[in-house]
Amino acid sequence: MLKSLFHWKVLVNIIVAAVIFCGLVWLTFRWLEYHTKHGEETPVPNVVNLTMQKAIKQLDDAGLAYDIDSGNYNPAYRPFQVLDIFPKPGARVKNGRSIYLKVNPRSYAPVQVPDILDTYKGLAFRQLESVGLKVGDTIFEPSIQKDAVIRMMFNGNTLKPGTLLKRFSTIDLVIGSGPLRNIGVPNLVGMTVAQAKAMIANNLFETGLIEHEDGKEDANDIIYYQDPAGGSIRDQGMQIDLWASKKTPAELGGKISYLNSIYRMKIDTTLAPIRYEEIPSYNDPVFTPDSDVPPTPDKQIEKPAPVKPDATKKPVDNKPTTVKKPTETKPTTSKPADKPKPKGGMTME
Known about the structure:
- There is one protein chain.
- The protein is an alpha+beta fold.
- Among the domains are: about 60 residues, Trypsin Inhibitor V, Chain A, CATH 3.30.10; about 70 residues, Trypsin Inhibitor V, Chain A; about 80 residues, Trypsin Inhibitor V, Chain A (2-Layer Sandwich), CATH 3.30.10.
- The protein has 6 helices and 16 strands.
- The longest helix has 29 residues.
- It is elongated.
- The termini are far apart.
- It is an enzyme of class 2 (transferase).
- Its EC number is 2.7.11.1.
- GO terms for molecular function: protein serine/threonine kinase activity.
- Keywords: Kinase, Membrane, Transferase, Transmembrane, Transmembrane helix.
C-alpha cells in the first residue's frame, strides 16, 4: 500500500495538481486587482463650507460620485452650504467611490400638523410646541366644548390635521368658551330633517330624538313637531327632539294635538294665587349709651340645689294615706225675733 502511494506516477500527479491550483489562485487575485482597480486611489477633495454646486463640480473632476443628505436646517450657515463629508477630506478612495455630503437645507423641514381638535387647550399647546409649531392668537367662540380646540387657522384659512407646514410656523386656535344661556330655540317646523340638523348645529344645540312617522330614516321628511317649541328660551347644548313625516304639518293636526297634550301642558292661570302671610318678627330693643333708660340686666333663674339624702333619717314609708273628708256644716235657720209688746196692756188689732 505504501509502495503504491510513493510511486513516481502518483507523485507527478500531486505536483501537477498543486501547480494548477497555485496558478488558479494567482489568476484569481490578478483578476480581482484588475476589476477593483487595486492601487488606483484618489484623495478626497476638501469641499467643506463650499456651496453644493461647487462641491459637486470638484467631486466630478476627481472622478468621485456623491450622495447628498440635507439634515436639519441651521440658521447659522448659508442655505445649501456643505457642512460635513464622509470619508474625511484627504482620505484615499477608489475612483467612482460615493462621497456623502451633509448640506444645510434652504429652510426648516416641513412638519405635520397634529390632530388637536376637540382637545383641551393646554394639551394642544404642548403638542404643537413638541413638533416645532408656534401658537398665535387664541380666539374664543361659543361652544358646548369649553376650553377645547374647535378649529385651527393658518393665514386666515381653516387648517386640517396632517397638513405639512414649515417648522416654527404660527397657528391660530379657535377655542370654545362654553354654551350661552337663555338662547331662543329656532323654529324647525316645515323644514326637512337635513335642514333642521344644520340649523340646530349652527345655533349650537344638539339633535335629540328624531321620530319618523313611517319608521324610515329619510332626510327629506318634513318636520311637523319639535320639543322644545320654537322661540322657547333654553341654554345652548340642550337637545331638540324632532318628529318628521312625509305629510305637511297641516295634515297632521290630530297628531300635533296629541303631542301638545304631552309636551305642552297648559297651566290654569285663572285660579287665585295662594297667599302666604309671614309672621312679623320682633327684635329685642337695643339701648344705646345715649338713651336715658338703662338696659335691664337679664335675670338669671336660679336652679334649686339638689337635696342630698340624709343617711341618719329613716326612710319614709310611701304607703297611701287616707284623707278624711271634712264634715259638712248644715246651715242653721234663725227664728225671727219677737216684736216688742206695747205698754199698758193695749193690744193692737
